[in-house]
Amino acid sequence: MRQAGRYLPEYRASRERAGDFLTLCKTPELACEVSLQPLARFPLDAAIVFSDILTIPDAMGLGLSLVEGVGPRFAKPIRTSEDVRCLGEPDPESDLGYVGDAIRLIKRELNDSVPLIGFCGSPWTVATYMIEGGSKHDFTLIKQMLYSEPALLHQLLALLARSSSSYLLAQIEAGADAVMIFDTWGGVLSTPAYHAFSLHYIKQIVTAVNGAVPTIAFTKGGGQWLDSIADIGCSAVGLDWTTDIAKARSRIGARVALQGNMDPAILRADPVTIAAEATAIVEAFGTHPGHVFNLGHGITPDIDPDNVAVLVDTVHSCSATILASPKIDNE
Predict the structure, then answer these.
(1) In 3-state terms, what secondary structure has residue 1?
(2) DSSP conformation letters of 206-265
(3) Which of 5, 254, 261, 315 could form a disulfide with 239 if both were Cys (CB 3.0 to 4.6 A apart)?
């Protein structure tokens, strides 16, 4: 969850050299550099390509900018049927080729030492930014479209699902060993709306890329829909920190792996508290296969990297104890 970011001083130095966030994303050599920075500090088990979930609408020409302290902004938000009609499907090679180039560089530098994870945003989550024009948490405009013009919203989401599928397939072709779909805002929907406007399109993406590499589906705030998420065919389901991991394992752990799920805020605590919480999560999952330990959402800029080191070391030592258990329950 955002392995490279403002909590690392070396990342901030790279960002300053680049001049702005989008240049950092779109310069393969710099994206490779910051993707590898966390692995130089910590013995992590995988790398994550440095990119952003809004690369697709940026490639659609909506005028993306990242405002420091404010977040993403689109100069040309999507509000009408004509706006949707004018959108084209980005070509993953010509329009988003810088991501594939970064993946190829990262894979070369990793030399198969650890796997590399690629990703995209879910169609619903990406659409919230496109319609609201930026990062707004009341979702007034997209929910208005959802309830008053559902066919129009479905048209946009279908386009984003197709674009995301081809984008992830291009990442896989470039060398990504697994891909993750981030549905940051699916949890703001009602149950019927979540299934119709979010999960339906995540499933389309999973179906398009399934069999190529493992797929991870993550809906923040989606704990009540775990069974439905597990049924879309993904390899793993991401959990935020509001879901009990032991209960999630008993519900869906025989069907999928689980990724998660420590509250990122705990990384502001002292090392003893961090180690205790990480241990509790690993032990709650138990001696069962299929746990990818992770934060329940993104790491925040104020975190001390030394606290991340405590977390990583604790997970490794606790996992080693679990793996040394004489019996592994495969049920």
Answers:
(1) coil
(2) HHHHTTTS-EEEEETT-GGGHHHHHTTT-SEEE--TTS-HHHHHHHHTTTSEEEEEE-GG
(3) 261
The domain segmentation of the chain, as residue ranges, is 9-227, 239-325
- Per-residue confidence in pLDDT tens, the chain, 331 aa: 677 888 999 999 999 999 999 999 999 999 999 999 999 999 999 999 999 999 999 999 999 998 777 789 999 999 999 999 999 999 999 999 999 999 999 999 999 999 999 999 999 999 999 999 998 889 999 999 999 999 999 999 999 999 999 999 999 999 999 999 999 999 999 999 999 999 999 999 999 998 899 999 999 999 999 999 999 999 999 999 999 999 999 999 999 999 999 999 999 999 999 999 999 999 999 988 899 999 999 999 999 999 999 999 999 999 998 878 765 454 4
Structure-token match 């386009």, residue found: 159
What are the catalytic residues? 2, 6, 15, 52, 129
Q: What pTM was estimated for this model as a whole?
A: 0.95
